[in-house]
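Person: Please work through this fold.
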Amino acid sequence: MTAKLTTVRSGALTTVQDAGRPGHAHLGVPRSGALDAPAMRLANRLLGNDPDAAVLETTLTGCALRPDRGITVVVGGAPCPVTVDGRPAAWGARVRVAAGSVLDVGAATTGVRSYVAVAGGIAADPVLGSRSTDLLSGLGPLPLRDGDVLPVGTPARPAPLPVTAPWPGPPAELVLPVRLGPRADWFSPTALRTLTSAAYRVSPHSNRIGLRTEGPPLERASTGELPSEGMVLGAVQVPPDGCPVIFLHDHPTTGGYPVVAVVAEPALAAAAQAAAGTPVRFTLG
């Protein structure tokens, strides 16, 4: 039999995430998946898992788990204190947790999202080929609540892997390379200069759907209404307040506000770890 994890402390927002479910936008289903995919994949590789095996993604305050059998875990992503039954354990490396012990993943010291990978992966039931929680459509497992029980998959045969690995740190400044979007002509030349020259910062109202920014509003040249149209990952949408919103993995598949630019996908992992107040700079390229 494989292990099960009981949620002792669910934290502010802890969800099951894997590589997501791309290819279903025509059905109105977002991609979802781990916001910091490189962190998820590194944690999985350290355990000998498939790189895209399902993990737990925590938000700011971590979580605590109790396995009913001995398991091996890696906690990565946003740096945070890790303990087993109150004793300090390694962050970013393999940790053995005995049956009945409590693994506590503490609050992020920097960054936003930590990842808890378990040898064998989290074996929640897949929906449309993914185990990811989708906060917008409600597909996949619900966000964790205290007392929830999660199944763990069968671990692969251990591979000769390093005990530790280098982890990228959360950004002190979030630099987002963009290309002008399909509705850039809805904005004044001044607004386009502002986008790539002004100082923005991450809003505390950001979430898995979008990273909201605070800063100078972008002036529209067109005041008309835009019919809903398709949205892509990384789209920089501008709502009526004029402050750019970068669409992340749980974004809606259509929207009615103009898209002034699109962020290159590789830059979005850093966006996942940019805490409220982090400076944001958009660059053309």
